[in-house]
Design the sequence.
């Protein structure tokens, strides 16, 4: 019987929580965008004329194929993160794409149409140097991989190793390049820095060394960066110190030293401090490279040169020119060169490679985004038109990782914002009211009421009502107008101008800060990028903190966001203040921050313009307020004694608390030191400031109330032991009051280790750790209660809470690894909470907090049933219907952001990683919304039916009464 | 009265307390715990200092000494002097301006055998509002928190009651002697998933089910008579309705 009850209780609880998306709801509330990251290699499929494929390998270890007409993904392969999945080289021949992965660990061949793996070979250990396709008699048959001390040749169709040979003197010579001109030999080029070059010739058939020679080159430090092979096996190198070009026929026996050609003799000069770059092209791996090549002499100076009969002749000088690239279609090779046109645009032109002559009517105008970065890579796709002239399209990558695909005469075919593959932090901001809504709001403003009398107020009210009526009529007209048009032609384009808050505040502005320093404003409903702003000169190791200082609620003041950009090494920071709706930089003067910033604090104190005050604490514990008007400083002086903040120094294990003084200096008031020899602080988290808790306690089975310990100043500190032995390692959790420094609770999870993910909210902390003894992930939940009585029910003060809370804790097994953890958040906190768990599989699990309740009983009792507690089970279930993103997996999910909406039942969720996924979750189902399939017709027909029935029966009753009276 | 005063002057107050010393041995990974217990130490003491200044610049003075008792019965005792006339006045003045009463202890390891190791530098400080200390008549609760290795990581002080209502404390006697409760709290071991009791419970239930054959009967076996009765009833009613006898109702 008890077993049945247990099952009943579980199924009852599931009734509450089970929620899944119906088939027709797919894509209705949610969207996903897939990204690939910064492009490292890009190759166009020139195999057939009609091919739309574009193959890309990126720094995020993604290998993908894009549709070059639309920019959509054909397929994408996401490899392991870190050096293990690093893509070293991408080569393409015909339908095959050969990729070297993980510092030369794996050699893979992909079928490019569907993205299937054809073969994979594990290579010998050794750090990767170079890879090249090797052809024999006009057919490319092999791929050669050069490692630090060995070279191997593989069959292109099967991946089987033909031969592998050790390189001679590999401990002194740095082998860096492979060259093959299709003549049955593979040449390996190595360099002994500032001494000589080594050239080793291998026979393709069996790997026999045919020839080995060394050539004096005392000026050379690296082959890879300063040399290229042109023409029929001529090694060409450039040196900036001697201002010369050097040539060497690789296979000639007579010439034993490099021939020097002074750049002066060609009337050229390298700009000091710039490392010149040589670019050659080898259209067919089975044939020698072309004799034309580009030489870049300064950031905006390229020159096309030709090597002929041992002489170098300039074909065309491109000055200024930002970028230059070769492209081949059939037998014709062209060069595309991007030159600046004016301040905002560049022009790209096509030149024939062999003569340097410009092709007519081939200009593409590239408009540079004023809010974007400069172009830094150019990829050209050349094709033959019907009239046998060469047409082309280009893909431009800019500093801010935007990929733009252009065709003549400058039409942007598509654009991808690859910066979004690396979102660092985000916020959601309410959209502003429309003009009419704002008008109404403004009417009830305090200032207006004081200034105006009664009559003007009435008039104002009437006028605003009239405006509303007008807007409503306009809306009706638009509905009518749209209804007449065919459905497909009605475009729901979202632009900034039409953006306004919807009825339930479900549509918001997503602010995303990316690692490259580009900010995005994205409409949460459709995923459309509404604005973007590239912040230049952002150090790659910067940390960002996004703060919403003023929301949209304070019309007519525009909303205001502040981004703190901090250099991780120096700690020096700067502020960027902007309007989150339009992305415009604010004109407000920003305080200079000459000292490293340790901590920021957003106070609930607002200035006269309704902006919340941001306090920045520097390394001398001095406080800078922003904004720092007189009004703010006055308020700060008044409230200084109740402003506390904490600092964490994890290198010394020190947590310290400070109090603000009236002169904006600070005083140390508490200090907790956790010895770093034993454990180190890995994370500290407070609660979210916009969190609401609806009920102060929990009603127990016996109708008494267990009050929650709701300390808004509580900090959860997670530590990990320095000893990583599986028996002795532990994870510590310390709950500290951020005002008084009082340790409220201290617990250790033994035989556990990180990475720890945790959520701190309401009166609970949930954390996930790795149990090193049982080798599994475990969840643990801590809940804090004041007990059956509240100490002070009206207000919480950290200074006046003498009794420590009761702490309950329980742990569970979680049968999956975890990437990230977050809790849902709703407007008033009435809706039950769910935990959103980002899994490495890309799914996002919505786990009811009900399952993570330390009061789950061992044995079912009458009272626990009354309270709706699920009996304790050590293993946490994972149900597929709890995956909020059904099959829309989010690759490498790194963070989940939750925001409340205007509907209490609804929480907006954004998961970001390599992809971005936005959806809504309803932890307690949609209790405040009528269902989509709600039968309006039935209910209204029943209503009308009843109405008419009463009318008729009334009439009938009257007649009957009359008849009776007559009788 | 005077007698008591004199006595209390002579007496230093000893407040002692219990503590939750759950796993002091494990902090050095269980290897040396036995030695630590066996070696007989008379314990050691560290100073407890306090500071209360009207200008709110901390100047720490000795308040008392914390005596740690090593060995099997771990304990901490606080012997402290009573407040002087001057201190009492200062404390009241500080309370009047809503100043802070701070205390601090040096960072120490309670693991007695580690005393000889390098002494970690620095202090652990905390505070309480001076007014609440005055209003509670110097009754405070001081807690020392240690980490797994027995190192003191934090100190906290609360007064009972903790509020500041602005009550005047007239009697000087109330501000002479600290009424302190002191304790040392070591981290508790967080629970792990309890699989064994769960499996046991499941087994018990299975057993119970096996013992009780009533439970194992199928749905039909249990309710066959009801189903049969229902079917008979349905058949009876349907056969009763089929003859055209409805006309008799009309009258």
Sequence:
């Amino acid at each position: 019987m008890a077993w049945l009850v247990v099952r009943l209780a579980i199924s009852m609880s599931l009734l509450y929580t089970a929620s899944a998306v119906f088939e027709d709801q797919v894509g209705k509330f949610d969207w996903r965008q897939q990204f690939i990251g910064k492009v490292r290699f890009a190759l166009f499929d020139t195999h057939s004329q009609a091919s739309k494929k574009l193959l890309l390998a990126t720094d995020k270890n993604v290998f993908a194929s894009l549709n070059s007409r639309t920019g959509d993904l054909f397929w994408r392969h996401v490899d392991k993160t870190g050096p293990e999945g690093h893509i070293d080289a991408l080569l393409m021949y015909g339908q095959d794409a050969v990729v070297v992965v993980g510092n030369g660990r794996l050699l893979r061949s992909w079928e490019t149409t569907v993205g299937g793996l054809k073969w994979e070979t594990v290579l010998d250990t050794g750090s990767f140097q170079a890879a090249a396709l090797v052809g024999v008699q006009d057919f490319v048959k092999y791929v050669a991989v050069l490692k630090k001390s060995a070279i191997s040749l593989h069959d292109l169709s099967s991946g089987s190793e033909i031969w592998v040979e050790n390189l001679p003197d590999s401990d002194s010579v740095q082998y860096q390049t492979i060259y093959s001109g299709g003549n049955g030999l593979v040449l390996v080029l190595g360099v002994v820095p500032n001494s000589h070059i080594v050239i080793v010739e291998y026979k393709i058939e069996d790997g026999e060394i045919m020839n080995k020679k060394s050539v004096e080159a005392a000026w050379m430090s690296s082959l890879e960066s300063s040399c290229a092979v042109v023409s029929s096996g001529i090694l060409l190198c450039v040196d900036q110190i001697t201002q010369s070009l050097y040539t060497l026929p690789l296979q000639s026996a007579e010439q034993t030293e490099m021939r020097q050609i002074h750049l002066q003799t060609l009337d050229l000069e390298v700009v000091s401090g710039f490392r010149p770059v040589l670019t050659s092209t080898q259209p067919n791996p089975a044939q020698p490279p072309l004799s034309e090549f580009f030489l870049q002499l300064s950031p905006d100076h390229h020159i096309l040169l030709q090597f002929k009969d041992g002489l170098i002749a300039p074909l065309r000088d491109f000055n200024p020119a930002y970028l230059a690239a070769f492209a081949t279609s059939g037998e014709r090779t062209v060069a595309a060169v991007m030159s600046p046109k004016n301040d905002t645009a560049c022009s790209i032109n096509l030149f024939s490679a062999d003569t340097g002559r410009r092709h007519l009517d081939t200009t593409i105008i590239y408009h540079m985004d004023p809010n974007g970065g400069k172009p830094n890579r150019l990829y050209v796709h050349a094709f033959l038109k019907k009239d046998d002239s060469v047409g082309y399209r280009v893909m431009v990558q800019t500093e801010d990782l935007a990929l733009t695909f252009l065709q003549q005469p400058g039409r942007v075919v598509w654009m991808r914002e690859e910066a979004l593959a690396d979102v660092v932090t985000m916020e959601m901001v309410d959209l502003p009211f429309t003009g009419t809504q704002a008008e109404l709001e403004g009417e009830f403003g305090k200032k207006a009421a004081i200034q105006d009398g009664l009559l003007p107020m009435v008039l104002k009210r009437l006028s605003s009502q009239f405006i509303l009526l007008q807007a409503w009529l306009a809306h009706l007209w638009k509905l009518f107008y749209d209804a007449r048009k065919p459905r497909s032609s009605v475009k729901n384009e979202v632009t900034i101008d039409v953006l306004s808050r919807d009825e339930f505040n479900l549509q918001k502005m997503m602010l995303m800060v990316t690692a490259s320093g580009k900010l995005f404003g994205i409409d949460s409903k459709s995923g459309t990028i509404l604005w973007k702003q590239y912040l230049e000169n952002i150090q790659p190791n910067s940390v960002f903190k996004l703060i919403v200082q003023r929301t949209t609620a304070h019309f007519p003041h525009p909303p205001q966001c502040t981004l703190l950009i901090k250099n991780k090494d120096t700690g020096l920071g700067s502020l960027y203040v902007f309007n989150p709706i339009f992305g415009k930089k604010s004109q407000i003067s920003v305080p200079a921050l000459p000292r490293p910033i340790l901590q920021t604090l957003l106070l609930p104190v607002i200035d006269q313009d309704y902006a919340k005050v941001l306090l920045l604490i520097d390394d001398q514990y001095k406080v800078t307020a922003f904004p720092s008007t007189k009004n703010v400083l006055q308020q700060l002086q008044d409230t200084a004694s109740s402003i506390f903040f904490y600092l964490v120094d994890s290198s010394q294990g020190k947590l310290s608390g400070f109090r603000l003084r009236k002169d904006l200096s600070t005083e140390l008031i508490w200090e907790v030191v956790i010895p770093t020899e034993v454990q180190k602080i890995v994370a500290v988290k407070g609660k979210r400031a916009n969190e609401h808790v609806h009920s102060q306690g929990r009603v127990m089975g016996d109708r008494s109330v267990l009050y929650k310990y709701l300390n808004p100043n509580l900090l959860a500190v997670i530590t990990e032991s320095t000893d990583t032995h599986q028996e002795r390692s532990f994870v510590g959790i310390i709950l500290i009051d951020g005002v008084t420094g009082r340790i409220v609770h201290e617990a250790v999870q033994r035989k556990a280790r990180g990475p720890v993910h945790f959520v701190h909210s309401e009166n609970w902390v949930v954390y996930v750790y790795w149990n090193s003894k049982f080798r599994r992930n475990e969840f643990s939940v801590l809940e804090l209660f004041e007990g059956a009585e509240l100490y002070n029910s009206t207000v919480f003060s950290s200074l006046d809470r003498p009794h420590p809370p009761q702490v309950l804790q329980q742990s569970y097994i979680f049968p999956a690894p975890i990437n990230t953890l977050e809790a849902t958040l709703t407007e008033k906190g009435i809706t039950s909470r769910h935990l959103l768990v980002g899994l490495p599989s890309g799914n996002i699990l919505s786990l009811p907090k009900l399952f993570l309740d330390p009061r789950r009983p061992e044995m079912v009792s009458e009272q626990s049933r009354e309270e709706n507690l699920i009996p304790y089970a050590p293993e946490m279930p994972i149900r597929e219907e709890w995956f909020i993103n059904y099959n829309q997996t989010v690759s490498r999910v790194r963070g989940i952001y939750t925001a409340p909406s205007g509907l209490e039942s609804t929480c907006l969720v954004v998961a970001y990683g390599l992809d971005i996924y936005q959806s809504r979750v309803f932890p307690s189902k949609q209790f405040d919304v009528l269902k989509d399939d709600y039968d309006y017709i039935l209910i209204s027909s029943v209503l009308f039916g009843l109405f008419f029935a009463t009318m008729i029966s009334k009439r009938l009753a009257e007649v009957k009464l009359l008849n009776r009276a007559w009788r | 009265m005077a007698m008591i005063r004199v006595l209390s002057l002579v007496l230093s107050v000893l407040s002692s307390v219990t503590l939750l010393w759950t796993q002091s041995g494990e902090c050095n990974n269980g290897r040396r715990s036995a030695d630590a217990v066996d070696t007989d130490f008379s314990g050691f003491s560290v100073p407890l200092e306090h500071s209360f200044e009207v200008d709110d610049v901390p100047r720490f003075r000795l308040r008392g000494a914390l005596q740690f008792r090593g060995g099997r019965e771990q304990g901490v005792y606080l012997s402290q002097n009573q407040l002087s006339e001057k201190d009492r006045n200062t404390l009241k003045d500080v309370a009047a301006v809503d100043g802070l009463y701070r205390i601090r202890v040096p960072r120490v390891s309670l693991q007695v055998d580690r005393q000889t190791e390098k002494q970690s530098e620095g202090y652990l400080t905390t505070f309480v509002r001076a007014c609440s200390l005055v209003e509670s008549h110097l009754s405070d609760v001081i807690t020392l928190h240690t980490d797994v290795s027995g190192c003191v990581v934090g100190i906290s002080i609360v007064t009972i009651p903790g509020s500041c209502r602005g009550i005047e404390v007239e009697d000087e006697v109330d501000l002479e002697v600290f009424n302190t409760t002191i304790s040392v709290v070591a981290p508790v071991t967080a629970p792990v998933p309890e699989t064994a009791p769960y499996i046991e419970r499941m087994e018990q239930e299975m057993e119970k089910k096996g013992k009780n054959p009533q439970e194992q009967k199928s749905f039909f076996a249990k309710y066959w008579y009801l189903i049969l009765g229902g079917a008979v009833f349905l058949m009876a009613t349907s056969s009763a309705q089929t003859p055209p006898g409805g006309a008799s109702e009309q009258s």
